Amino acid sequence: MLAPELTLEAALRDVGSRKEQYRYHAAENLARALLHELGKPGPRWHAAAEHPRGPAVLAALCDLCDEREPAVLRGTAAVGLGLLGEPVVLELTAGWIELPDDGEDQAFLRESAVMAAARLYRAAVEAEADPAVRQQIRARVEAALRAEAPDLRYQGALALVELAGNDTEALLVEALRREEHPAVREGLVQAIAHLDPPGSQACDALEDLLAGPDAQEGIGLEAALALAAARRTSARPRLLQALPVRGHRDRALEALAVLGAASPAEIEPVLRLAERWWLPSITRVRAAYALCRMTASREGNPGQRLLRRLHWHPRPAVREAVRDAETNLELLAARERE
Description:
- The structure is a single chain.
- By secondary structure, this protein is mainly alpha-helical.
- Helix content is 68%, strand content 0%.
- Among the domains are: 1-145; 259-338, no CATH class.
- Helix 9 (169-178) packs antiparallel against helix 10 (182-193), helix 11 (200-210) packs antiparallel against helix 12 and helix 14 (246-259) packs parallel to helix 16.
- It is globular.
């Protein structure tokens, strides 16, 4: 949860302002400020009941959900109610998911309804609240995954894995196989990547994607990163292809390190990258760490040599990155000896 930018009293004051920007800022901070004063992170089930100003906060947020209010205020208030663990938000947002218009306001309300439900679900699980409420929330998010609006399907995918983790694998894979919208497909792959780790069914779907025409697109890299999290070496060719792309190489290096030992031909492009002195030093640390993981022998390991060289870098952030890399390598080595 983000720290509030207003005190609770200031948010309650500004929510009644005649200026919409002040009201929006208040709506954005009411729930966060209340939780901050409680000293308890959200989402939290019925959090308002624990604070003397809780009734005033709930009244303000519920009033902001009124259909006469601007969409930006309604959606923001709904998310706040979810953060405070108030089931009334399900009733207040009941029709939002079915909004047919493609305008920005309707899209914002649809997405806010899903975000509010996801936060409410987390609060309900933490408090072991009524299972019927949890089932109602999950049904709403699953409905979002099958909605006509692409933005809602995208939001539903990310919310669903947040709700139920690996239990959602079959639903996400089914949705990925039928989805045609490029952005939603990428969102589904990102959701699958949050599984801990992706299971065999999900990995099979991701490998099918890598074998298809989308492999060289952004979704192909996302699929490879998810496969690497599941320790599938089928991800390695696509990760190596990402190394020349500046915006992708750091994530690709981290995933290559996860996959571990590789062939000399697969090590070579990472070694060339690590030796380019003009690249950002943090990238070179990542490359050196990847080399340490990809090279089976520790003796004469080029990654170890590069880490020792970067150990004396003038920038503290780089030296800290080197220390983190060396610590991780020591922990992995100790685990292998056990």
